[in-house]
Amino acid sequence: RHHRHSNHPVIALWAAGGRHYATLLANLVASVERNAPSLVPHLLVFALGGHTLRVLRKLLSGAASLRRLFPMAEERTSDLWSFRWRLLCSLLSQGLRAVVADADMVVLGDLGSYLAQVPAHMDL
Q1: Of all helices (H) and strands (E), which one includes residue 121?
Q2: What is the DSSP code string of 34-73?
Q3: pLDDT digits (tens, 9 = 90+) for 17-33
Protein backbone atom coordinates (compact mmCIF):
# COMPACT_ATOMS: atom_id res chain seq x y z
CA ARG A 1 0.00 0.00 0.00
CA HIS A 2 2.80 2.51 0.70
CA HIS A 3 4.48 1.63 -2.58
CA ARG A 4 2.02 3.59 -4.69
CA HIS A 5 3.45 6.79 -3.25
CA SER A 6 7.03 5.56 -3.12
CA ASN A 7 9.73 6.23 -5.68
CA HIS A 8 11.07 2.74 -4.94
CA PRO A 9 9.59 -0.17 -6.91
CA VAL A 10 8.31 -3.32 -5.29
CA ILE A 11 10.53 -6.31 -5.98
CA ALA A 12 8.46 -9.36 -6.83
CA LEU A 13 10.18 -12.74 -6.46
CA TRP A 14 8.51 -16.02 -7.35
CA ALA A 15 8.97 -19.76 -7.52
CA ALA A 16 7.02 -22.77 -8.70
CA GLY A 17 7.83 -26.43 -9.02
CA GLY A 18 8.52 -27.50 -5.46
CA ARG A 19 11.73 -27.92 -3.50
CA HIS A 20 14.37 -27.10 -6.11
CA TYR A 21 13.00 -23.70 -7.10
CA ALA A 22 11.77 -22.92 -3.58
CA THR A 23 15.35 -23.47 -2.36
CA LEU A 24 16.68 -21.12 -5.04
CA LEU A 25 14.11 -18.50 -4.03
CA ALA A 26 14.92 -18.89 -0.31
CA ASN A 27 18.60 -18.37 -1.18
CA LEU A 28 17.70 -15.20 -3.12
CA VAL A 29 15.62 -13.88 -0.21
CA ALA A 30 18.50 -14.64 2.19
CA SER A 31 20.92 -12.75 -0.07
CA VAL A 32 18.62 -9.70 -0.02
CA GLU A 33 18.28 -9.86 3.77
CA ARG A 34 22.04 -10.22 4.20
CA ASN A 35 23.40 -7.91 1.49
CA ALA A 36 20.62 -5.38 0.90
CA PRO A 37 18.43 -5.16 4.01
CA SER A 38 16.93 -1.85 2.86
CA LEU A 39 15.18 -3.79 0.07
CA VAL A 40 13.33 -6.17 2.43
CA PRO A 41 10.34 -3.82 2.95
CA HIS A 42 9.91 -3.74 -0.83
CA LEU A 43 9.89 -7.54 -1.35
CA LEU A 44 6.84 -9.50 -2.42
CA VAL A 45 7.50 -13.26 -2.46
CA PHE A 46 5.07 -15.43 -4.44
CA ALA A 47 4.83 -19.22 -4.07
CA LEU A 48 2.96 -21.02 -6.85
CA GLY A 49 1.36 -24.19 -5.57
CA GLY A 50 0.98 -25.80 -2.17
CA HIS A 51 4.22 -27.80 -2.20
CA THR A 52 6.31 -24.75 -3.08
CA LEU A 53 4.52 -22.75 -0.37
CA ARG A 54 5.18 -25.40 2.31
CA VAL A 55 8.87 -25.62 1.39
CA LEU A 56 9.27 -21.84 1.41
CA ARG A 57 7.54 -21.49 4.77
CA LYS A 58 9.97 -24.01 6.20
CA LEU A 59 13.06 -22.47 4.57
CA LEU A 60 12.08 -18.90 5.47
CA SER A 61 11.01 -19.61 9.06
CA GLY A 62 12.31 -16.79 11.20
CA ALA A 63 13.20 -14.64 8.18
CA ALA A 64 11.85 -11.11 8.03
CA SER A 65 10.54 -11.85 4.54
CA LEU A 66 8.26 -14.68 5.69
CA ARG A 67 5.45 -12.18 6.32
CA ARG A 68 5.81 -11.06 2.70
CA LEU A 69 5.11 -14.56 1.33
CA PHE A 70 1.94 -14.89 -0.75
CA PRO A 71 0.42 -18.19 -1.92
CA MET A 72 -0.84 -18.49 -5.48
CA ALA A 73 -2.50 -21.27 -7.42
CA GLU A 74 -0.18 -23.60 -9.28
CA GLU A 75 0.23 -22.72 -12.93
CA ARG A 76 0.11 -25.23 -15.75
CA THR A 77 3.65 -25.90 -16.94
CA SER A 78 2.78 -24.46 -20.34
CA ASP A 79 1.76 -21.16 -18.68
CA LEU A 80 4.82 -20.71 -16.46
CA TRP A 81 6.87 -19.02 -19.16
CA SER A 82 4.48 -16.06 -19.16
CA PHE A 83 3.89 -15.88 -15.40
CA ARG A 84 6.52 -13.20 -14.76
CA TRP A 85 4.95 -10.97 -17.41
CA ARG A 86 1.44 -11.47 -16.08
CA LEU A 87 2.69 -10.77 -12.55
CA LEU A 88 4.42 -7.59 -13.71
CA CYS A 89 1.28 -6.42 -15.57
CA SER A 90 -0.84 -7.11 -12.48
CA LEU A 91 1.45 -5.04 -10.27
CA LEU A 92 1.62 -2.20 -12.79
CA SER A 93 -2.17 -2.17 -13.16
CA GLN A 94 -2.38 -1.59 -9.39
CA GLY A 95 -0.36 1.60 -9.85
CA LEU A 96 2.87 0.13 -8.49
CA ARG A 97 6.37 0.49 -9.86
CA ALA A 98 7.70 -3.06 -10.02
CA VAL A 99 10.69 -5.26 -10.75
CA VAL A 100 10.09 -9.00 -11.20
CA ALA A 101 13.09 -11.29 -10.66
CA ASP A 102 13.52 -15.00 -11.19
CA ALA A 103 14.70 -17.19 -8.32
CA ASP A 104 18.01 -18.22 -9.89
CA MET A 105 19.97 -15.13 -8.89
CA VAL A 106 21.46 -13.60 -5.75
CA VAL A 107 21.83 -10.01 -4.59
CA LEU A 108 25.41 -9.06 -3.71
CA GLY A 109 24.86 -5.39 -2.86
CA ASP A 110 22.21 -2.83 -2.09
CA LEU A 111 20.50 -1.82 -5.31
CA GLY A 112 18.00 0.39 -3.49
CA SER A 113 19.40 3.77 -4.44
CA TYR A 114 19.83 2.66 -8.07
CA LEU A 115 16.29 1.28 -8.32
CA ALA A 116 14.82 4.45 -6.82
CA GLN A 117 16.47 6.50 -9.59
CA VAL A 118 15.25 4.40 -12.53
CA PRO A 119 12.56 6.30 -14.46
CA ALA A 120 9.12 4.76 -14.07
CA HIS A 121 8.79 4.05 -17.80
CA MET A 122 12.15 2.23 -18.10
CA ASP A 123 12.38 -1.52 -18.61
CA LEU A 124 15.45 -3.03 -16.95
Answers
A1: none
A2: HH-GGGGGGEEEEEESHHHHHHHHHHTTT-GGGGGEEEEP
A3: 888 989 999 999 989 88
